[in-house]
Amino acid sequence: MAKLPPxxxxxxxxxxxxxxHPADTTLIRQGDPAGDVYLLIDALVKVTATVENGxxxxxxxxxxxxxxxxxxxxxxxARFATVTTCRRSLISHIxxxxxxxxxxxxxxxxxxxxxxxxxxxxxxxxxRLDIGGYPVAVRLGRVLLELAERHGTRTGERASVGVTLxxxxxxxxxxxxxxxxxxxxxxxxxxxxxxxxxxxVKITKYTELATFSDISx
Length: 217
Fold this sequence. Notes:
Order of helices and strands: HEEEEEEHEEHHHEEHHEEH
Distance between the termini: 27 Å
Number of domains: 2
Structural class: alpha+beta
CATH topology of the largest domain: Jelly Rolls
Strand content: 15-25%
Largest sheet: 4 strands, antiparallel
CATH architecture of the largest domain: Sandwich
Oligomer: single chain
CATH superfamily of the largest domain: Jelly Rolls
Number of helices: 8
CATH class of the largest domain: Mainly Beta
């Protein structure tokens, strides 16, 4: 939303019905037909998908200012993933036809969405590269740093990752077994990079964790 011009932002905010949802509300269920598009006003949600063998994968975390549910509306297909609120959340429900008509009438908004899709594709490709190229502890470090950058706050060498995830969710996010994530979390905490007991996890040596995780700061 911050990337839209102010006038376009106000129009977009007025497209839908604003509703408050408690934590653990399923906004979108994988396999359902397309319907509303959801603009996160003051919200935190997780995007998950289940594959044919029953395994569930955490695909992404989305927060205030993000949009979810737009892909099925744009290409008129079934929902690809399930979207669930992680905390009490204020969300705008935009009917699919209203969303499409607005994009036709507002090229600046459509261009901003295209840039968002490009950013998400780069993120997904980076996750696949990380899974193939790094051990579990490094993949975990890279994801923690990225979460802190996108959703947390940093003061000097200390940073909060901003969202509370279970070890199973971290495992799904980096393509590893929960036991492997548990060992990696203990390893990073033992090196002094993390306070893994806090909720959400806190990074205590940001620069050193970035070096360990092969990230330039």
